[in-house]
Amino acid sequence: MTRQVITAAPGCADPLSLADADLLEAVLDPDVPARRLLALAAARRRHGRPRTLLPTSWRHVLHREAPLRFMAASLAARRS
Asked: Is 41 left (phi over 0), alpha (psi -120 to 50) or beta?
């Protein structure tokens, strides 16, 4: 299913954080054990860490779905 989404929407994973990209890569590899998938899923929820803040490419730092903009918008919404 994940591969179908990526194929149907080219570039959809581009603005993802490094941690999200790690998990996505592992999900696409049938040889990755469930224990590793769970560890990567937990790592992507450690908000504020460099791998959760930085996108896979600097070209996507200001993308509307980029981690920094998304987290900043979430903080702003929480404070209003």
From this structure: alpha
| Terminal alpha carbon distance of the chain | 37
CA 52 to each of CA 9, 22, 67, 79: distance values in angstroms, whole numbers, following the listed order = 22, 10, 7, 21
> What pLDDT, in 10s, does the model give residues 39-52?
999 999 998 899 99
Instruction: Tell me the pTM.
Output: 0.84
Domain assignments of the chain as residue spans, ordered by start: 2-79
Residue 3 and residue 25 in contact, taking contact as beta carbons nearer than 8 Å: no
Which tokens belong to 14? 């581009």
Q: Could you report the per-residue pLDDT of 30-42, keeping only the tens digit for each?
A: 999 999 999 999 9
Find residue 55's DSSP bridge partners.
17
